[in-house]
Amino acid sequence: MRPAPAPGPLPASMQLTSDGRLRHFLTLEGLSAPLLTEILDLAESFTTVTAQPVKKVPLLRGKTIFNLFFEPSTRTRTSFELAAKRLSADVMNMNISTSSTTKGESLLDTLRNLEAMHSDMFIVRHSQSGAAQLIARHVAPHISVLNAGDGQHSHPTQAMLDMFTIRREKGPLNTLRVAIVGDILHSRVARSQIHALNILNTPEIRVIAPKTLLPKNVEELGVQVHHSLDRGLRDVDVVIMLRLQKERMRGALLPSENEYYRLFGLTRERLALARPDALVMHPGPANRGVEIASDVADGPQSVILKQVSYGVAVRMALMSMCMGNPPGSHE
Amino acid sequence: MRPAPAPGPLPASMQLTSDGRLRHFLTLEGLSAPLLTEILDLAESFTTVTAQPVKKVPLLRGKTIFNLFFEPSTRTRTSFELAAKRLSADVMNMNISTSSTTKGESLLDTLRNLEAMHSDMFIVRHSQSGAAQLIARHVAPHISVLNAGDGQHSHPTQAMLDMFTIRREKGPLNTLRVAIVGDILHSRVARSQIHALNILNTPEIRVIAPKTLLPKNVEELGVQVHHSLDRGLRDVDVVIMLRLQKERMRGALLPSENEYYRLFGLTRERLALARPDALVMHPGPANRGVEIASDVADGPQSVILKQVSYGVAVRMALMSMCMGNPPGSHE
Amino acid sequence: MRPAPAPGPLPASMQLTSDGRLRHFLTLEGLSAPLLTEILDLAESFTTVTAQPVKKVPLLRGKTIFNLFFEPSTRTRTSFELAAKRLSADVMNMNISTSSTTKGESLLDTLRNLEAMHSDMFIVRHSQSGAAQLIARHVAPHISVLNAGDGQHSHPTQAMLDMFTIRREKGPLNTLRVAIVGDILHSRVARSQIHALNILNTPEIRVIAPKTLLPKNVEELGVQVHHSLDRGLRDVDVVIMLRLQKERMRGALLPSENEYYRLFGLTRERLALARPDALVMHPGPANRGVEIASDVADGPQSVILKQVSYGVAVRMALMSMCMGNPPGSHE
After folding, report:
1. Do residues A126 and A219 both lie within one domain?
2. I want to staple C205 with a disulfide (CB 3.0 to 4.6 A). Which of B137, C128, C139, C223 is the partner?
3. Minimum mean pLDDT among A74-83, A105-114, A172-181, C24-33: which range?
4. Do B246 and A118 touch (CB under 8 A)?
């Protein structure tokens, strides 16, 4: 199975059951504000679980969850694995590159085999856009697929933990100015954040980037475009810095690391242009001295580590909802 | 410890306790029809566990099971790991090539160490025939060894899940015609299937292969030999296709993939020569277009994915029996 | 984060809580005899757990333990993982070399992320002396760090399982003569053993080695120095053989394997110089025919495999104490 390079449009209904509950979690496109709020509310209740001495609830006991990571990842894989274990599920980590796909077995055959072993959920990370979606189209009816990042397309659980962090630290999204800074063009994180912010009625979403790192017609996503960091940061409540892939610097897109830092790096001086209590966020891992100054990443306005903490609770909520557990059933 | 290339004959009693219960599961040779039937019956009851929402029974809680895979394998390792987790055992996956054997420690020393940590079971896959047997000869009395495939010798859990599949889909073995097609010579799967079919009194067992892919004196195993697929398939109830190792095609044994497919590939036209309701089986992963046509592998007579499903239940039964749990004790 | 090559002195209090309980377990230096005895006593009670059919207690249920092995290790990692699972903790194995440190993330950032996911304990093995200590200095207050071996500095859990083995097989340490034989200079195991033996008031500790394999001023550690194995072994109650790193033989430190064996290898003849009931110990994996004869390693006086067995119980005790469980709370 070769995931198509450009995934076709996803029917909004594909992620939902006939009665509107979450079945897969592939992309934020097409999801409603009430559903996103339900996810955030459930995640809120899971933060109490992760703060207990016994960080475990039996909600997914006896469920089998496969972590299918076709791209290497420490923090995302770990976060999902922990979320699954804290829900008491059985988690299987599949290192796909060393698997029997080397025996010439196609990806689809591998998945059908895992399916046949009575799996309940596939967590999928893949370097090709649309991979999780393609898998979701082919799985048996009782299986849920969660997208843990597909190519440059979507990283919806990251976006949800970002929304959770903002709501928890700043209050409802529908009163805030949020800026996303950096390589919007190649970022699945940015794409998912913009969708989530729009769904939750964020009144002002700014993207700040050099022209070479912006998708064409980005304004159509419902964002304001800035090419100057100083101007773009003015009065925002939240600054989300994106990781700059080092390989971008080698091509024609960017002059150099130093030049990028000079123009788009978040320093203390620049952060002062935002609201005094503005949050600093980053999906991690941060390139200190490239897109963000070390003292800002570790500073009092940074919630970078809180994002990581909340990530486990948000993923517990998503796993639990996809498995059909009504909100509140673990209390 | 270097497993001898040709394992000596195994005393039938070695796999059994003094009162006839299963202790190790290394090979089908020497086991009785009632014992095999007991395994199949217990597996039957485990299929209800894997179909439950909570796919877990506490039978092996607190037991420590080591997955010792000296050869790479996705599906077999995963199947054993899932079986162990669904029995509530603690499973340890040992990647032996990266282990301290690189520090010059011998295999036997490694095993004695795992043993000393109060292991209960070793699941062993090894490229050398007789490896699991050799290990079983040396382990402490409380430890069970399950053979997950040794060289070209034996793959007894695969054969048992095949027997289970046939019995479940077709009824008792003692009324059926079964054909095994392909590289009998190098196949541990075929060798174990032939033993199992004979023990369960299958009246007609056919092997279908080019002369170069048959062991010498194969008739002595109690099978009919066919060199023509068309003739061999006539009126059989079950067709088991074997995976063709690509490396065989490069040597003198076979002309080419295309030529093999032309002569021994299972197509729809050929399958029509068997009984109309004949089962199509394959231990996986299948080489589509080499030993089997894609539409046959995915067709209505194929039970390939059922084999995978049942495999977990069959392995749960074998693990549970080796650990001394009487049939029915999980109900 | 680059662990400094020479770790600074560790304040004795760093490993203890304000009321004197164990928080981290990094080195034996500065710990008291009563605390070591408490560890040994608790481990004693855990040996009954590992001997039960259900080898599991719920003491650390819902705790999250990260196995952070920056150096490859089979037996130590396995022993810790088993200890954690038998305490019902959730264990995460991190293969650090393949982690996102390859994305340029620093070790400290990785740890802060794991911390943010509500970890409870880090088990750390690292090739640089002082690594576990450095990590312990930086972790959040609720996290415990256990040193699973750092460079040539310390391997305190190994030393404690050795003390446990000696006490169990020979009685109290304060009446015994113990010899440590081999490459003292490069051995973290020897360093920790010497500390433990001194704390437990062992009246006579001998180190036996060629001059090239002894640290300068080794006498200051409270040991007798011998350069002749024959003389050093006379009348000892315990002989601890150290593993000879093969790479030492290539340098100027040692003439050859054969020559080393001739001078410092433990043979049956030599062992006869010790007390008739002297224990033979080795932290493993042993180089048979280099530092120890095979028949001695497997002989009646050898307790090498008992060391491995007791290791799990000792690590359960240490994990449990660091997590704040009072001795006896699992009974």
Report:
1. no
2. C223
3. A105-114
4. no
Segments forming the whole domain that contains residue C303: 156-308
Residues C173 and C62 in one domain: no
The answer to whether the CB atoms of C308 and B116 lie below 8 A apart is yes
Can you point out the beta strands (E) in chain A?
Answer: 64-69, 90-95, 121-126, 144-150, 177-181, 204-208, 224-226, 238-241, 279-281
Structure tokens, A265: 């790096």
Tell me if A5 is assigned to some domain.
no
What percent of chain C is predicted at pLDDT more than 70?
89
Co-location of A113 and A162 in the same domain: no
Question: What's the confidence (pLDDT) of residue B100?
Answer: 45
Asked about C315 being catalytic, the answer comes back as no
Who has greater pLDDT, A109 or A267? A267
Is position C41 within any domain?
A: yes
ipTM of the complex in this document:
0.90
Residue A170 is assigned to a structural domain of this protein: yes
> What pLDDT, on a 0 to 100 scale, did the predictor assign at position B101?
47
Percent of chain A whose predicted confidence (pLDDT) is above 70:
89
C286 versus A273: which is more confidently predicted? A273
pLDDT digits (tens, 9 = 90+) for B173-231: 999 999 999 999 999 999 999 999 999 999 999 999 999 999 999 999 999 999 999 99
Question: C-alpha angle with apex C297: C263 to C224, nearest 5 degrees?
Answer: 50
Tell me whether B98 touches chain A (CB under 8 Å): no
- Cβ contacts of A113 on chain B, cutoff 8 Å: 74-75, 284-285, 305, 308
Say whether pLDDT at A115 is over 70.
yes
Structurally, how many domains does chain A consist of?
A: 2
B280, β-bridge pairs: B239, B302
B289 at interface of A, judged by CB pairs closer than 8 A = no
Q: What is the mean pLDDT of residues B238-247?
A: 90
The overall average pLDDT reported for chain B is: 90
CA–CA gap between residue A108 and residue A113 (Å, rounded): 9
Reply yes or no on whether A206 is catalytic: no
What pLDDT sits at residue B107? Answer: 75
Residue of B29, B45, B278, B58 lying closest to B153 (CA atoms): B29
Residue C167 CA neighbour count, 13 Å, CB half:
24
CATH number for the domain harbouring residue A56? 3.40.50.1370
- Provide the CA B231 distance to its chain's centre, in angstroms: 27
Within this chain, do residues C136 and C199 fall inside the same structural domain, yes or no? no
A245 pLDDT tier (thresholds 50, 70, 90): confident
> Which of A147, A159, A97 is CA-nearest to residue A121?
A147
Comparing CB atoms, the residue among C94, C101, C112 nearest residue A305 is: C112
> In what side-by-side order are the strands of the sheet with C279-281?
C224-226, C204-208, C177-181, C238-241, C279-281
Assess whether C103 carries a catalytic annotation: yes
- Tally of residues, chain A: 331
- Same domain flag for B162 and B303: yes
Structure tokens at B265: 């590939």
B175 and B209 together in one domain: yes
Residue that is written with structure tokens 């993207």 in the block: A207
The pLDDT of residue C250 is 66
Q: Which of A23, A24, A86, A125 is catalytic?
A: A125
* pTM > 0.95: yes or no: no
Give the closest of B72, B285, B305 to A105, CB-based.
B285
Long-range contacts from B15-19, C-beta under 8 angstroms, 24+ separation: B15/B136
Inform me whether the pLDDT recorded for B8 exceeds 90. no
The confidence band for A173, taking pLDDT boundaries of 50, 70 and 90, is: very high
CB-nearest partner of C74 from B63, B100, B116 = B100
Q: Is residue A167 part of a domain?
A: yes
Contacts of B204 (CB under 8 A, 6+ apart): B176, B177, B178, B224, B236
**Subunits that touch chain C (at least 3 Cβ pairs < 8 angstroms)?**
A, B
Examine the domain organization and report whether C299 and C271 are in the same domain.
yes
